[in-house]
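Thread: Newbie trying to understand structure tokens

Hi all, I'm a second-year student working on a class project, and my supervisor (Dr. K.) asked me to get a predicted structure for one chain before our next meeting. I've only ever worked with sequences, so writing a 3D structure as a token string is new to me. If someone could post the tokens and maybe explain what I'm looking at, I'd be very grateful. Here's the chain:
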Amino acid sequence: MASFRFLHAADIHLDSPLRGLHGQEGSAAQRIRGATREAFGRLIDAALEHRVDFLIIAGDLYDGDWRDYRTGLFFAAQMGRLQAAGIAVFLVRGNHDAQSQITRSLALPENVRVFDARAAESLRLDALDVVLHGQSFKQREVRDNLVPGYPPAEAARFNIGVLHTGLGGLGGHENYAPCSLQDLKAKGYDYWALGHVHQYQILSRHPHVVFPGNLQGRHIRETGAKGAVLVSVADGAVTDVTLQPCDVVRWNRVSVSVEGAAGRAEVVERIRVGLERVSRTEADGRLLACRVELRGRTPWHDPLVADADGLLAEARAAALGLGVDAAWIERVVVATQAERGADTLAARDDALGALQQMLDQAAADPELLAQLAEDPGQMLRHLPHPVRVDVDPDSLLQAALDEDPAALIAGVRPFLASRLRAEDD
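---
Reply by user tm_fold:
Sure, no problem. This is what the structure looks like when written as tokens:
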């Protein structure tokens, strides 16, 4: 068999918005808005640099229907770069770009092959003795195991299965096209190029079963390096699988201890130092999109919680001091503890104490929980889809959208208690 190399990518979500940018301006925010497109350009650069023989895209190239034709035109232009270099492209459609989700279309260069959605099919590269088996999603929610319908492995060829799957709900992802690792191994293929799970994972090496993760992290739950995998094959066996980072913006959680801080100015300085450290060790030359998490017991807990907007502005100013495109702060989470706790406030014999007692009891009040589930829910159900999908997954609004009143109360209590204590002081 011939020796060859290929790139395996998935979950590109081309031109999808990154979360946390509403109302944000400046060069960092603009770069984050264009990150998925720039990351895809870097993927094509990597294919050309490493002179790969072909590229696999295992689903979710797009993030649903295009807003206009510019998304499709950009993709076609990038495919033209590969065609000029003689590099073939094989792709399946996943849940976000299923056949039913994409209503616009453009003619693509001849080097691009899209797997059929009606049934699994086999596409061959005879010069390399390679055969790829795959099936696109016909609609967004595919609940059947597609693996049994994939063709049998072909002898004397390197067999690659291309599949968009939740693999049993791995990593908390929706379990589309459910299957098991044993289902994949039993097929007799040499390499499974999977998509849908946004974390790089090699689940098996005999045969290789690989999720490359998504090409560009889009929110704080997708931290660390993101990219595609470069796969080398010699004599019919995989000899190397290496992650090739393509991300433009790298998400990171920055934990900052504020214990012993003499005041708010020192808190902000500790944030700056933390950002500088992470930028130096984790960014790899990329813009860092950070969630700063303040930890420790401090007398400044209440003022920090009570003035969250002011604290975020000061932290962003500190980030700008590191350089225009060094770090951008998505959010500052005050996870500190007050030296004077809520139990102290609840013990007071006044209106503040009574209010704190009411907050403490709220999570166990079935009538209040029912009312919270009903009243905000009616309003939130009418939010436009673009607004709903751009909600911070860890926010109070997401708790309300999930109709989880207990989580809503749990999130509100520390804020209200801190505001009460801050105003009392």
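A couple of things are worth pointing out once you decode it. The first strand starts at residue 4 and ends at 9. The mean pLDDT is 85. Feel free to ask follow-ups in this thread.
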